[in-house]
Specification:
By secondary structure, the protein is mostly helical. The chain has helices spanning 26-31, 35-50, 53-75, 79-84, 92-102, 104-149, 157-163, 169-177; strands at 11-14, 21-24. It is 67% helix and 4% strand. Helix 2 packs antiparallel against helix 6 and helix 6 (104-149) packs across helix 8 (169-177). The structure holds zinc ion.
Amino acid sequence: MGSTRSSHSNAYMYGFFKNKRIVLYDTLIQQCKNDEEIVAVIAHELGHWKLNHTMYSFIAVQILTFLQFGGYTLVRNSTDLFRSFGFDTQPVLIGLIIFQHSVIPLQHLVSFGLNLVSRAFEFQADAFAKKLGYGSALRAGLVKLQEENLSSMNTDPWYSAYHYSHPPLVERLAAIGEPDKKAD
Ligand SMILES: [Zn+2]
């Protein structure tokens, strides 16, 4: 659940194969006095594992790093690149700086795409916890964590779509509560 939109992180999982770990922050344990809510958060993290989210994120980062280095290798000796920025010589450091600045617009698009995927993953992990029977406990836990972390309750959908790696609380609660309201 570790959220980039606040400095507070609640829980996350990392590792592959036989070296998987779920990290629960002590603040989470303090905030969720109810054991069921903590188990619900663990169920959410297990959802990330079961659905291979960690693996997908890892692969995505590798590909992006490869593209970044590959792109730089392609253009680093281009005279056009240096000329268009007013350089007659081709210092390596200047080439690197120009490249880094030129890819910033692309990076914004990529991070937007990654945020889209990340939010979809969060909904899937929530659905996983719900399927295990922790729907209402997860909702209660999410509300409590949100109160403690003092993040905004209902952000503008366009703002959150661009900036947030996690869906806004209201959307998550709605999604968890949605199809089988009688079961909750
Ligand atoms: Zn999560």
